[in-house]
Amino acid sequence: MEEANINNQKPVVSVITACLNSDQYIEDTIESVIKQTYPNIEYVIIDGGSTDNTLNIIKKYDNQIANWISEPDNGVYDAMNKGIVHSTGEIIYFLNAGDYLYDNEIIEKIVNEFLDESVLAVYGNVEVINYEKNKKSIRGCKVTYNNLLYRRVCHQALFVRRSLFDEMGLFSTSFKLSSDHEFIIKCIKKYSDNFLYLDKIIAKYRDDGMSCKMMEKTKIEDLKIISSNYNIFKFLLGSAVCGYVILKYKIPQVLNQ
User: Fold this and answer.
1) Are residues 153 and 231 in the same domain?
2) CATH value at residue 109
3) Which of 80, 53, 97, 76 is nearest to 204 (CA)?
4) Are the CB atoms for 91 and 13 separated by under 8 Å?
């Protein structure tokens, strides 16, 4: 396939999309990337071996995608890791199938912040859409190492320099739902002053993702991550928060049965 047109005057942003049997959503995701005004985007799609119409849709945009592969993987973080390995950009961003960039200029706005070489990551907010309930909400705020005990940075709102993956390693595939959270905690623990928060909406994402559907398992993974990255007192605080969130999701489910 043709290589993307790269303008060597500006940093390359690798946008990585992981997908599997996503023919309902993948085209909107692709179009939100290729319509960006920023000229130096390397778009990489990692498909887990789709059996629906996903591959035909990807092939439709072949000349606007720098690289795509389709093969079985071991989950979304394995796919995201493949995306890192098969990309070359200085800045990396993950936009999975069903996620959409908020507007056509957002990558250009974000890249301007990376002109400051001390900035290792830029993050902002996401618009969460629940189509079943016809509801929208905005999530995101400035985070610190300590408040990551009970807050998260959505990966759809985060752009990072490749150097962070070179130093910290790829996503752990031992976690199925919270490996991006672990990566962010490790990075902010060491480089809190180098993470820049922008009070802007970066992307939209659907409320029916795996972490939303499997909140209990997500929080159990979070507990393992907290135990490895915080002292006992903070672990106890994090445990209390995880327990509260599990109850918050479970009680309405029980009442509605």
Assistant:
1) no
2) 3.90.550.10
3) 97
4) yes
- DSSP state, 193? G
Instruction: Report how many domains make up the chain.
Output: 2
Residue with tokens 């029916």: 208
Q: How do residues 78-116 score in pLDDT, each as one tens digit? A: 999 999 999 999 999 999 999 999 999 999 999 999 999
Phi, psi angle pair for 93, to nearest 5°: -145, 140
User: In terms of Cα–Cα distance, which of 102, 94, 133 is closest to 212?
Assistant: 133
Asked if residue 248 is part of any domain, the answer here is yes
Cα 210 to Cα 47: distance, rounded to the nearest angstrom:
17
- Residue 87 to residues 16, 17, 84, 111: CA-CA distances in angstroms? 8, 11, 5, 17
Which own/partner pairs from 186-193 qualify as long-range (CB within 8 Å, at least 24 positions apart)? 186/229, 187/120, 187/121, 187/160, 188/143, 188/144, 188/145, 188/148, 189/145, 189/229, 191/120, 191/121, 191/164, 192/144, 192/145, 193/118
Residue 89 CA to residue 13 CA, distance in Å, equals 5
Could you read off the pLDDT of 174-225 as tens digits, one per residue?
A: 999 999 999 999 999 999 999 999 999 999 988 764 445 577 788 889 889 9
Cα separation, 160 vs 123, whole angstroms: 8
N-term to C-term CA, the chain: 52
**Amino acid found at 150:** Y
Q: Is 138 exposed, middle or buried (0-12, 13-18, 19+ CB in 10 A)?
A: exposed
